[in-house]
Design brief:
single chain; alpha+beta; Phosphoribosyl-aminoimidazole Synthetase, Chain A, domain 2; 60s Ribosomal Protein L30, Chain: A
Length: about 325
């Protein structure tokens, strides 16, 4: 059973797209050199420099961090469901900011379309999400005489304390914090717990992430992205130079969604956290108080291997020391 699951997961579109990032990482390594992970000098000697490969660029300025990120929408989504594509363009950027312990400030967008009329649903979806999440759209670029339609959004935020992809440690517990009060999208691998939810609830639930960072309960994690839980975990392990054992039996999921589909689905509210054992109970309590699921699903290890296990089986899924995912991993001793 596990061998078949591994084969399915390795062919998922989300993971294949993450591997495409290797072309970008190779460019930066060539252009900037082997020390290209650190791109800026920190504003304060006690603050780390910006590193490539996290959910946002975190730019230390002496008072904390400016967070900067951008996302482009899949062309088929823009073409087939433009309102939803506009919504998602804002939602995924907001999630990136909160995933790093920050709070969003504003977004800008870029739009190419064949006509102004074709753009209306994209604008409407984006504005609906901006209103729901309480974030202003402050500018961008619009071209309504293009030969194609495309949408991307960039976001600015700020964090006092970071949640980073680079700080997982062997012995950490892997926690999945997720909102299961939703429904699957009829076409795409997307769990929708956002478009029909109460806006105040969504904003308060997201506020838990910077709260955890500022209380010193969590400094490592990522939002569960289009690579799903499995792709997001690989990203986290690659950036931290670690491995993990993922216990599939403990992964919380909707009752009517098969595991193989859930592991590569994008949840509208989902965060994978690497938490010191002494903080696990407190972190789970924070989410539990908001009626959100926060389940212990595995452990960080000192190897660079991701192992999948159930009560009856265990198998290696990915060896990051031999097969990088994005290529943005920090240099590690062999």
């Amino acid at each position: 059973m596990l061998a078949e699951l591994v084969n399915q997961l390795k062919q998922s579109l989300g993971i294949l797209h993450k591997q495409d990032i290797q072309a970008v990482s190779q460019f930066y390594q060539t252009a900037i050199g082997s020390e290209g992970q650190d791109l800026t000098e920190p504003g304060d000697a006690n603050l780390p420099a910006t590193r490539l490969g996290d959910d946002c660029a975190a730019i230390a300025d002496g008072e904390g961090y400016l967070l900067f990120a951008a996302e482009g929408m899949m062309p088929f989504l823009v073409e087939q469901e433009p309102w939803f594509a506009g919504w998602c363009a804002v939602m995924v950027n907001v999630s990136d900011i909160y995933a790093m312990g920050g709070r969003p400030i504003a977004v800008v967008d870029t739009l190419w379309s064949e006509s102004l009329e074709q753009s209306q649903a994209l604008f409407a979806g984006m504005q609906a999400a901006a209103t729901t999440y309480g974030i202003p759209i402050v500018g961008g670029h619009t071209n309504c005489h293009s030969s194609y339609t495309a949408r991307s959004v960039a976001i600015l935020g700020r964090a006092d304390q970071l949640i980073s992809s680079f700080t997982a440690r062997a012995g950490d517990r892997l926690l999945l914090a997720i909102d299961l009060r939703g429904k699957p999208h009829p076409t795409y691998p997307f769990w929708n717990a956002a478009t029909d939810a109460d806006p105040a609830q969504l904003r308060q639930d997201l506020e838990l992430l910077p709260t955890l960072a500022e209380r010193g309960l969590c400094d490592t994690g990522k939002d569960v992205s289009m690579g799903g839980l499995i792709g997001t975990l690989l990203l986290l392990l690659e950036m931290s130079g670690c491995g993990a054992v993922l216990n599939l039996d403990t992964v919380p999921r909707p009752a009517d969604l098969p595991l193989e589909k859930w592991l590569v689905s994008f949840p509208s509210y989902g965060f994978l956290l690497s938490v010191r054992p002494e903080h696990v109970a407190a972190v789970q309590q924070v989410f539990g108080d908001r009626h959100l699921t926060c389940q212990d699903i595995g452990e960080i290890t000192a190897t660079r291997h991701l192992t999948l296990q159930t009560q009856t089986e265990s198998t290696g899924f990915w060896d990051l020391s031999q097969n990088p995912l994005t290529g943005f991993a920090p240099s590690l001793p062999v």
